[in-house]
Amino acid sequence: MLIDIILLLLLLILLPLFREPSAPATSQNSPDSDLKEPAQERPVIVRRALDVAWKQGHRTYPALIESVREQTGIGCSRRTVSDWKKLRGLVGDSQQREVV
Fold first, then answer.
1. Which of 9, 49, 68, 85 could serve as 90's disulfide partner, Cβ 3.0–4.6 Å?
2. Which helix or strand (DSSP H or E) is residue 70 part of?
């Protein structure tokens, strides 16, 4: 009987150590951390934000990154901007070419 009680107490103590967290940890960088988008949607959201930033006249990497940060709550990398420019055919172009 005493062994059963000890085992039960051990189980109650150790059980929380093996539980999976009920909700994933969210980033504190986002002002709307409750409204996080799934990871696979983030590239699409960033490309749209970069399109908007370009149409607003932002041409430098820092300006584009800051515009993404203002629109989404989280900035993006220079590499993301570079990949976006290649995708849109804007490589080496900091002039007024329109994004289609």
1. 85
2. helix 61-72
**Residue 61 burial (CB count, 10 A):** 15
| Residue 45 located in a structural domain | yes
Task: Encode pLDDT of 20-36 as tens digits.
Answer: 665 555 555 555 555 56
CA distances 89 to 21, 44, 82, 97, Å, are 44, 17, 10, 10
66 against 96, higher pLDDT: 66
Cβ neighbours of 9 (radius 10 Å)? 10
Q: Within a domain: residue 83?
A: yes
Considering its fold, how many domains does the chain have in total?
1
Is residue 59 included in any domain, yes or no?
yes
By residue count, the chain amounts to 100
